[in-house]
Structure of tRNA(Met) cytidine acetate ligase:
Amino acid sequence: MEATGIIVEYNPFHNGHQHHATSAKKLTDADVIIAVMSGNFLQRGEPAFVDKWARTKMALASGVDIVIELPYTFATAHAPLFATGAIQLLDAIQCKAFCFGSEDGTIEPFTKSIQIIQQAGESYDFAIKEAVSKGLSYPKALNEAYKDALNRTTEPDLAADLSKPNNILGFHYMDASNAIQSEMKAFTIPRIVADYHDEAIVGNQIASATGIRKSFFESDTLGTVEGFIPEKTRDVLIEWRKQRQNFGSWSHFYPLLRFTILREGPERLRLIADVKEGIENLLVRAAANNDTFAGFMSDVKSKRYTWTRIQRMLTHIFTGFTYDMRSSIGGTPAYLRLLGMTEIGKLYLNENKKRLKLPLLSKAAAFSNPSLQMDIHASDMYALGLGYDTNCSQIGNDYKIPPIIM
């Protein structure tokens, strides 16, 4: 059996995600689709709409055969580290290929971009560092360095457009794969209909996860988004609301986040991962002055600090993730955390269990590792944030919920 890997968040799983999974399987002629999925906190620095087990159920019901958790330290990181962790996991579980959605829609521009940056060599890395030192955000600094490298080549039109969010991630996936000399073959499919920031539009069947969440929170009803999600996703969300009442968002988590910022103060906040350059003082002032998350972010956001960068800091503040903890975990995944599988996925794992490059974990209590402990802690903090105003916070689910079999 041959497997193709995809890198996902499913926040929540929608029709576009189903198209990605089924198209990846067809394009690569795979027997199995393996998804490396972020846990309860996501790459753009926000709590997941629903937890990793609910999203695993959605995925397994709609074209995915195995779901592996991307550890917290990678799932909440900037694009290069996010891609590095995910690609290493797909390589470790013996995928023959990986497939990502992109605005360009063909793999050749990404291959060309890799070649151009390799030819630029150290000047590319230097250009990024210099742009960051001048106050540009990392994504903008990368784009400026990339434009400079394109200007030095004779075929700039053949390269990928790295100003587009999915193209940026796709580039980093391919770069990470090259870095570890993986034998996985890269594929891409066009992202269809909705871009990341697009709102859900009645009449379309594809909407971005951002648009779906925005429509839901504005209406507080699943009826406004059910046309954009598979039936099983709808069923999981209905069951979630009955059991958990709330959906994950910073607006809901803000009272606990605000409490944490004000309790810790600037001195302790400086120890938190990604908090730097004196922003801890601004965070404390903004928390003291604002009763809402929207007001807080309005006070903190600037040209130097993008919305995403600030939210990553807030995620680490909320979970207590420090620079020292990040250093102890390192930059390489240490395990394959199994969240769920179909019967076909189970057959694949049984067939390949002796060939896996990392230990496969089905029980959290069976493995001791600082990265896994952080994953478990992050899940508990998510549960606390979700259920602090109810009687159903459900702390400790990592030890209670076995891998889902569908």
